[in-house]
Structures are given as structure tokens and as C-alpha cells.
Amino acid sequence: MMRGVVLQTFAAAVLLLPLLFLTLSTKIEAVRERGSLPLHGGNVFMEKKHYNPKKSNKNNNAWEWDNVAIGGGGYVTGLIASSSEEVLIARTDVGGLYSLRWPDDEDDMEEKNTSKQQQLFSQLYSSFVDPSDAPRLRTASVASVAAGNGVSGGIVAAVGSGAGSSGGDPGFMLSANEGSSWTFVSVSFAIDGNDHKRKWGERLAVINNNNVTMEGDNDGNYTMLGYGSENDGLFMSDDGGVTWKRNDALAVGEAPGVVFLTTQPDGGGDGGGLNIKTKPQVVYAGVWGKGVYRSSDGGGTWVAIDASPLFPCRFAWLNDSNNTTKTAAAATMVTGTPTLVVTSNSSVNAYDVGSGGFVDISPETKAPMPYCAVATLGDSVLAVAGAVGSFKEAVYISEDAGKTWSKDLVSISVWASDVPWWPRHWFASAASSIALKRTKNGNGVRAALATWYGVWFCDDLFALQPTWYTREKGHEELVNLDLAVPPPPSPPSSLNPPSPSSHQLPRVLLYSGHADVGGFRHTNLSSFPSVEDKFDGTQSTASIDVCEADANILVRVGGNEPGDSKGCGQGFVSVDSGITWDAIGTFDGACGGVVMFVSPPAAAGGGPCDWIVWTPFDGVPLVSSDFGKRWERSVGAPAGASGTSAKWEGGHMHQIAADKMGGGRSFLFHPNNGLFGSSDGGRNWDMINQTTIVGQQQQLLLRQEPGHLQVDPLVRGFMCLCQMNGGLLCLDKSSALVPIGGIASCRLVAFGAPLSADAAEDDGSAPSSQLYVFGRVEGATGDDDESVFLFGGGGGPNAAFAAKGADDWIKIGSPNFRMAGAASGKMVADRSRPGRVFIGAGGQGIYVGSMIGTSKYEHE
Fold first, then answer.
1. H or E, element range at 554
2. Which of 65, 558, 572, 824 has the most neighbouring CB atoms within 10 Å?
3. What pLDDT shows up at residue 828?
């Protein structure tokens, strides 16, 4: 992963540290003169960038980026052996690929259960061949992986979600150097790494066929590949995955189709010593609804195996000398012909390739039980896990190839996660894959178990009481739905002394809402949240907001997955910064959407945090004047303005926002109708701008596309609309949407703490917030992909309206730390620490960026 380059470059960066102590008012100018010192993502990145749209040079950069520590949370759908015995490849349903190192044998339990442990997860995404594909693998839904000895130099990954994927079209990511660099090949058939059968596999395999011409590398490795698709049957590639052709000889089956593909370990034919240049391999395929098929000519023709399991899930090989731990003791254990073990929806089955025929070797014989995860050590040691699709799946191990089994290991195990907020019942949840490894002394068997939320390790499966633990540092796979930052704390004074309880708890830096795991309050960005920091009550938190008048008061709404007994979920309020929550009133099945505090009307009674506007999924805004107890429909606003994509999981487009200044307006945007405003707490809405915006030379149509709305918390009425094709539009004093120069494409927009006193308006009024955009500047080409930019032309609306082009924007995102999936979440900027920016991502949790020389992690 270029560690040597990183260390050398970091040493060079240290020489520039004196520049970091410039005052905030001069840092932006210092950025413009910074030298070029590229580093790997997650570390400091500096680069000289003076952007000229005509020359397409890069902008300046003096920001460092990383992930906010949350801890796992996403489904690891497969563990695949790599070319190294110490490293697995972990595929996920929304978070791309990770390399996963086995923990050291000698670590004790105390060390294993701290968040300061050595990092085992490292994401495979850097140095792509084509920079435009760089974000693709970070949030890809990975359907299958082929790696290790059979793939020349590295890894092939099938990525996609349905007809497309979160990172682009379905296709294959190819690496010839074990994940250091990648290229992407698009395909016309569907690949789905995020469907309900995503743990089936592996669908990718290396196959030899002497009927085709193959190209090999200098080491004699050959790259004939097969991929079993979900709906379209088998596809094969004779050039290492660059081009693919359908193989019509194999049955298509029912969805999820061809669920696994594997070659016989000894090659087949003469029983060993196969020359893959001249002889085809024996190949096996599991086809859902049809059973297991065998091909003796490298996939040219196929024959269904009698009495095979009709609904297979995964496979493993017993008596596989290619898959044993490389010790003399292990090598002597491999005797007899290879045996294919297949798990299915009702049993575990073994197929001896010498004698033929499947035999049921299931651990539980009293009644049929679904199994999926399966692994061997290549000898007679075999482990399987149940596939009920719930928590604490059964796990069994056998020393004699399935003749006898242990009792369910979960019933006799103990476990503890290094992520404090993980509930105990999450252990072994929806187990997808198992990997086994011998201990260094050869006397024990270690395991890695992939689950809904991360990976569990066990150092001795044969112990009287197996002990399991997690090492989730580096694994950030949550799908973010919303972010909120508290207002800056009021300075204490004689009239406003700090309350006695104000120092009992650390200050909250960020609130986050996510799919599947609720949400969190973050008081430390480098440590996993505590149990008390996790939000419960709904499966997903779609939206969350903080009251401007009191940072301890919050409101959030969310939902549950369709079919959940809790229905579509509801909302909650908190008066202690999110430690405890009370349910708000419901309204006609309102679900998800966006919620926010609004300024009460001038004549309204009640407190400053009593007025709340909730815009549910596909509905009109609802208004509460009593802190969420009762709700009423608003008048004048169109339905569906929340931008919510689903009832149960939230507002991916935040198309409604409210002034933070007292007496301000609320704003609502609907792509098909236009921009609306309300001055009475959200009860009544009037059209502000429907068809036109002010252009430099002519009036232009307001684009009918979704957008993100944000307001400047320091300037009443200063609102900006961010659109992919419309760019950045901000509301001027005449209530016209004005295009802001230099931004060609805008995904997210945010306002944060002013970088300097120069942010004040020309009339001497209070400073305006710093403006940030995630998108593309005008004239960007080549490796100038989407990134984060700050407006460098001074503070206030007047300065923003005067922006002429890309030169007025400063790039602060690093090309080595791609913000993949950012459009699925939200961007907010810290209102207390200048320059700190948070970006929520689909499948990557939360990114945090800070100016060099300011800590993005400190406990405040």
C-alpha cells in the first residue's frame, strides 16, 4: 500500500510544520503557496494547485482526511484467501473490499478488547489506473472475489447492485498487484452484491480450458475466469476478466442463479500433477433450484450430479493439499481424493470425486436446517455455520471430515467486541463466511467469522470454552443518512455562568444518523462510540437536528425496514444532548423524511425549541408547536419535498432547511415545483422562485432536479441550493436564485465556522459562515474528479455572489482519499472549529477533514 512512499513523504511534510502556526486569517493564502507532497489517503496531503480553467491545473490543498471512528456496522459477505497466509480479503455488500490480517497468536484478551489495538482492516482502493474509477471500489457492492494462487498477481472482484452499483455500472475490478492499483471493466449483465443472497459463493473462479488460447505471465499463471451470474447463467473470460462471453452449456437456474463455481484441487483427469497449459480442469457449479453440476472439460459441457442439493449456498474442499497450512504436520494429514463439501438450505453434503455421489453429513440430523458458511484446513478439519438469517447462528466444527461434530459452539462460547456499542446478541449474526487457520504451533485451529456487522475471531475452536473477539479498527461500513453539528457554545459570563453539570460530560462534536444501526452522538472522533452514545428506537435514523437556542435539545425521525413488526417507525426528542429520548406523537403513518427546528412566529408562545417541522416520506410538511406532541398539516407546500428515497431509511436529499437566526424563514425545494418559503413556523408556504434564476447574460430555467438545501446560520435568509447539473445557486436579497461562479456540478453544500474575521460583510455586520461544496469546479478534467472545495473569496453573501470562476474556489479534498458514496449522505461543517468538515457516505460511514495543524480528533 505504498507505505515507504508515505513515510518518506510524511518526513518531508514535517519540514513545513512552521507554516502551520500561521493565524487562521493567513492560512488560506499560505495554502496557495504550499509545495507538492502527495501522500496516501488517511494521512496529510499537500499539493501545489493553482487552478486555471483553461489549463486544467489542480487547486491548492492543505487538509487531512480520515474516517470518524464508529466501528464496523456493515455486512461482510465473504472471506477469501489471498496469496498470503496471514491476510484474508473481506468483501462487503456496500463498502467495497478490505484486506484483513489475522491477529497475532500471542495477544491476550485484554489487548484484543481495546480500541487502541493494531489495525487489521485496510481498505483496498488506492492508486487506480483510471482516476475516474477511483471511488468505485470504496463503496462497491462486491458480489464475488477471486484471489490467491490462481490469479496472476492479485485480485478480481465482481461489483454491482442490481442493474447498476453505488460506484457505477456492474462490472469487474481487476488488480494485478494485490490491490495496489485497479482498473474497471464494465459488463452488460447484472451483478448484484447487495441482494438477499449476497453471502452465497464464491461465484468467481479461475478455470483452464484447452479449447481456448490463454495468455500467461512469466510465472506460468493463467487467467481463464468464470463468473456465475444471478440471472443470466455462466460467463467466461479468457483474458483475465477484460472481456466476457456467456457460456450457454450450463443451466441458468432460479435467482440467485449460479451461486458458486470451483475447480477440483488436483485438476481432475489423472488424479494429480495436472499441466494446466494442456489439460482442462474439472469444474463444479452450484445452481440455485437445479443442484450441483460437473464439467470435465473446463466448462465446455456440464452434467448434473445425481442427488445433489437443489439449493446450494457455499462450498469447501476436504483433502486439498493446495489449501493446507504450510507445515510438515499439516501436509501429512492430506490423504485420499478431494471431497467437495456443499452447504444448502437444508443440509451439509459431501461429494467424494473418486467414488462419486453426495452424502449428507449435516451436524443436526433431527430436522433439516439451512447452512451456508463453510471452511476447511484442506485436510479433514471442517467448520460450518447455520443460515437462519438471524443473530447467534449455530457454528459447528469436525475433526474427521464431518463424521462427527461438536455441539453448537455458540452455546459454549464466550465473546466480547472491541466496539462498545455493539449489542451482545449481534454475535455470529447472519454468518456469511468462515476462514480457518492453524495456530503457529500446529496444535490448534483459529477462525474468522464474517457477519452482518463485522468479523469475529477465535484463537482455538477446540477449546472447552471458545473465546471470540473483534478487531474492527479500520472497518467503517455504515450508510450515513444525516449529520448535525451543535451550535458553538456560548462563552460563560457573570450573567451566563456555566451550569454545574456542564463539565460532567464531554461536549458533543457531531450527531449522526445511519441505516440499520440507528445513530450516534460523537464526543471523540477517534474512538468508537460508547453504549450510551448509540441511538435506539428505530432501525434507521433518517434525520436529526439540534436546536439553535439550546444545544442539548435534539429531534430525530427514522424508520424500520418494510415488514418489521414496528412498522415505519417514529420520532424522538432529547433534552440531554441525546443520552435519553422520548417518543414524539405520530401522524397518519408518517415515516422517515427530514425533521428540523424552526423559528417560532413572532406572536407565538412557548419556548424557542418548541416549533418543529417534519417532512415525512412522500408527504407534506407537518408542524408541531408543542415540542412534537401534536402535529398539523402545513398549507401551500407540495408533497414529497423531503427527498426521501424510502419509507424506512431516510432523506438522501435534504431539500428543506430553516434559518438559525431568530425570526427567520424556512425554505423548501421541490424539483417539479420550485422553491418555497415560510415565515410563520412552517404552517404556510409561498412560492419564492419557480421558473427563473438570474444569469450573467440571460434568465435561465430553474432545473427540475433534486438538490440539497443549506442555510448560513450566521446570516438570516442566506440559503443555497446544490444541484448536480444546476451547480450552486444562492438566494439574494431580492429572493432570486443566483448562480455562484466556478461550480459546474454540486452534490453537497455546507456552512461552517468562519476561517477569519475577513468573513464579515462589507457593512460591518457579523461574519458569515465559511462556504463549502462537494462537487466539480468549472473546467475540471482528467484526474480533477469530484472533491471538496471551500470558497476562498472572502465572507458573506456579497462575496459569494461576486465569484467569477474556479479560481475563487480552493480544493481541500485529497485525490488519495476519495469521497466515494458522499452523495448518499450529508455534508456539515463544524461551527466551532474552523476548517473541520464532515461528510456522510453510503457504505463508508463518515469522513472528517481538517486543516493541517489543527486536530480533527481531540477530545473537546
1. strand 554-559
2. 558
3. 95
